[in-house]
Amino acid sequence: MKIGVTGATGQLGRLVVQSLKDKVAADNIVALVRTPEKATELGVDVCAFDYSQTENLVASLQGIDKLLLISGNEIGQRLPQHKAVIAAAKQAGVQHIVYTSILHADNSPLSLAIEHLGTEAVLKESGMTYTILRNGWYTENYTGSAKGAIGAGAFIGNAGDGKISSAARADYAEAAAVVLASTGHEGKTYELAGDEVYTLAELAAEISSQSGKNIPYNNLTETQYADILKSFGLPDGLAQMLADSDTGASKGGLFDNSRTLSTLIGRPTTPLAKVVADALV
C-alpha cells in the first residue's frame, strides 16, 4: 500500500513522514511536495505536487492508495485547492483521503474554520472513503513567541481567559501517521487537542518560571494585537488571522477535553512545559 503525504516538507508534513517511517516501510511512502529538491533528506520517494497546478495532480497521485491531504497555507485559496486535490485523487484511484481540518470546525468561532468546513463537505460528497482529523492549535504557534516575549518583557495576545488545549505539532503528526498506517478509521471525524489546558496568562507564567524573568501576559484588543503583529513585519492577512484566532480562543474555540488525541496515539500529549523548554533553547 502506497501512502502519499502532501506538504511533506512543511513543519507538520516532515514530522508525519518521520512518524510513518516507524510504522511502515519507507518505500511505501511518497512525499508530495512543491519543491522536490527540499525533500531528498526525508528518505522516501518524492513526487512534485503543487495544489495550484491542477493539470499535474492526477499524474502525481497515480499509484497512491491512501493520501494525507495537509491543508494548504494560502488562506482564501485553500478551498479551491483542496477541491482540485480531492477531484484528482478520485480520478487517480486513491482509495482513502485523510484531511487535516480544525478543531470543532462545524461550530468554531475561528474564521479559519470556514475553508476547513467547506473542504470537509467536498470530501464527504466525493463518495471516497475519508478520515477527518480536526486538529486543535499547535502549542508552537504560541511558544514560537516565547523568546520575543522575554526580550520585550511581556507576552501579548487577545485571548483573554480563554482555555486552550493545544498539543505539540509532533503529537498531531503521530496521530496522522497512526490513521494512515492502520485501519478502522474510515468515515470518522476526530476532534484532536492536548491533554493539558491553559490560558495565555498561565503560559506566560510558565515562560517566566523557566526563564527566571517576570513575563506578564498583556491582553489586548483584536485590533491592537493585529496592529502590533503587522509592526513586526507580518503580512496583514496573517496578522489578522492570528488576532482572529485569539478572539476565537477567548470564546472557547481552542478548547477540547475529550483526550481523543492521546487515546489515538496511545500516550499523553507533550506537556506545555516541554514545548516551552524546547522553544527557549
Automatic annotation (TrEMBL):
InterPro entries: NAD(P)-bd_dom, NAD(P)-bd_dom_sf, NmrA-type_oxidoreductase
Annotated NAD(P)-binding domain residues: 7-179
Coiled coil residues, start to end: none
Protein name: NAD(P)H dehydrogenase (Quinone)
